[in-house]
Structure formats: structure tokens, C-alpha cells
Amino acid sequence: MTLMIPDHYDPKLSVKDTEAAIRYIRETFQDEFGQQMGLQRMSAPMMVEQATGLNDNLNGVEKPVSFTMQALPGEQLEIVHSLAKWKRMALYRYGFKLHEGLYTNMNAIRKDEDLDNFHSIYVDQWDWEKIITKEERTEATLKATVRQIFKVIKHMEDEVWYKYPQAVHHLPQKIHFHTTQELEDRWPDKTPQEREALICQEDGAVFLMQIGGLLKSGQRHDGRAPDYDDWTLNGDLLFWYEPLHHVMELSSMGIRVDEAAMRRQLKAAHAEDRAHLPFHELLLAGKLPYTIGGGIGQSRLCMLLLGKAHVGEVQASVWPQATLDACQAAGIQIL
Fold first, then answer.
1. pLDDT at 60
2. 236 is catalytic
3. Average predicted confidence (pLDDT) for the chain
4. Who's near 202: CB < 8 A, 6+ residues apart?
5. Among the options 129, 230, 249, 313, which is catalytic?
6. DSSP per residue over 281-301, as a string?
7. Among the listed ranges 25-34, 79-88, 174-183, which one has the minimum average pLDDT value?
8. Residues in domain Aminoacyl-transfer RNA synthetases class-II family profile (predicted)?
9. Residue at 2 is within a domain
10. Residue 3 is assigned to a structural domain of this protein
11. Which one of 35, 126, 145, 334 has the fewest beta carbons within 10 angstroms of its own beta carbon?
């Protein structure tokens, strides 16, 4: 585990006041986000049947928490990694129309997560998905949606400043757009993480596009599952987080695969066997709507807006004792 300890850390808020601020941010943001994006709140599962192919495979190496239940002998259930595919299926099953969408509270366990100040095995985010036309599967649609989300986040900053002026962490005024290939061309000798740090220090807030496919060097900037985001029309929302002098990823999102992108990416990932799973069969048959969607970290947003040094200050999870001891010594109040 990599643990960053800031010098002379001041949490600004007590644990009780932090808890009140967390509740305020979560409740206010989801209402404003849903309203501005035209999304309806829906209930979502914490586990899915393995055989449906609905779970998120992330980078393909992380193993989901799995178990069996008495009422379904022989069926393997998995705690979700995310709801990337479930949401698209839900829009289809529930009869959502063009430009309608949903958001939901997504709670997951990623037991293989590498822990640090931003990462926990417990993942809580607002997952969202919206129906678009095939013609709207463009970079212009992606950028317009990112700007809309950034506007809601900036408005949330103003709301938090009004209630907790002593604690709010101020964000950049503008979001900048770059591609992973642009970063490799500019800094060919740097690692992907180093490139992200350099561009975020320069711009403050960045939407880094086109993640998952091979760059000109033959390397990938980062891994992405092949069966939800279109790797040419996706990206991560990144901030330069001054309290830790580090990049913070707040959101991963994108325009989802169509039939051609699904086939292309399954082949690139050597995962063509997934084409026979129920979700994939529906998509390849052209029965699922074209969509754009993503996730916004709930604890990450609270951490970002309140200037916290560790995600454990805004969510209750499990940490190694060495982490707890180091945080306590530095005045970092782990819940």
C-alpha cells in the first residue's frame, strides 16, 4: 500500500461535522445531478449471477467476491465491481425512451484493489446511463456531457462553501480535454501515471480521452474492459489534488460500445468467448439501446470538496493496522 501523509495536516472539520457534510454533499449532489442530466433514480443490485455476464471485469485480473445461496443451488453469485453493463440492460428492460436515463447508488467490493489515499476495497459511486442515438455516438456528445457534469460539480463546490467555508477545497474554473495519444506524443519517456500528473499539474482539471486501446508505442495507457466503453469515445475525469500533490480520478465514463466496437474490442482483448453471454448476445443482435454512461465516486467527491487527506475520512472501510497507526499519528481521522 502507498500512503501519502501531508505535512501539518489540518482536517478542518471534526468527525461529527465531517459526517454532516458527507450527508449534505451526497444528498444535494445526487438531486442536482439527476435533475441537470435528466436522469431518474433507480434501485440496483449489489450482486449478480455470474452466468449473466453483467459484472464488470475491470482490467481482467481482479477477482470478484463470489458465493452461492441456498435457494439457487449450482448458481455462482458475484458482488458487483460496477454496474456498467447492468445499467444498459435496465434501460432496455424498463422501457426507457431516447434521451432518458437513470442513476443509482452503486456499492461494490473490489477485494484486489491496491489501497492508497484514494482507493479502498469498498467502492461507492453514482452509476448513471442515458440513451442516445447512433448518430450521437461522437466526441462532441462526450465532451458536451463532460462539461455538463463539471458544471454540476462546480455548483456543488459553491454549495459546500456556503455551509462549510473553512473546509471547502476550491476547484479549477475550466475542464480541459486531451487524449492519451497526445500525452504519449508529448512525454514518450514517461509512464502513463507520470503523464497524467504532468498534464493535471498544468491544467488543474482534465478529461483524458481514449483509454483502453493500444497507443502508437504498442502500449496501453490503462486497461479497460472490452464490453462496455468504446475505447475511442471514453475517458477519465481527473483533478490535480493539491492537498496530496497527486492526481485524483473522480469519474470514468464514455459512450458505450455498439455492435462493431464490441466485436473489435472482444477480439483485441482475446475475450471473444463472452459473445455468447446473454448481455453480449442482446447487444450484438442490435437489441440494446445506444448509451452514454459512467460513474462518479461518492466518497471521492466528498474527499475532493472537503480537502481530505484520505478516503477513509469520508467512508467506513477496512484498513491495515499500519495505515491506521500512521494516519492517527498524522491527525487523519479514519472512520
1. 62
2. yes
3. 93
4. none
5. 249
6. HHHHTT-SPPEEEEEEEHHHH
7. 79-88
8. 23-320
9. no
10. no
11. 35
Give the active site residue among 56, 127, 184, 227.
Answer: 56
Q: Which domain holds residue 300?
A: 15-329
Which residue in 30, 82, 120, 125 is the catalytic one?
Answer: 125
- pLDDT band at residue 85 using 50, 70 and 90 as cut-offs: confident
CA dihedral 123, 21, 117, 110 (to 10 degrees): -10
- Tell me the average pLDDT across 207-219: 96
User: What CATH number did the domain enclosing 53 receive?
Assistant: 3.30.930.10
Catalytic (active site) residue 56: yes
Q: Does the annotation mark 203 as catalytic? A: no
The answer to whether residue 125 is catalytic is yes
**pLDDT exceeds cutoff 90 at 145:** yes
**Catalytic pick from 26, 78, 88, 110?**
110
Whether 229 is catalytic: no
Only one residue has cell 475525469, namely 237
Overall number of domains in the chain: 1
Pairing of strands 122-131, 66-67: unpaired
Distance (Å, rounded) from C-alpha 312 to C-alpha 76?
A: 31
**Which residue in 127, 230, 236, 258 is the catalytic one?**
236
User: Does residue 201 lie in a domain region?
Assistant: yes
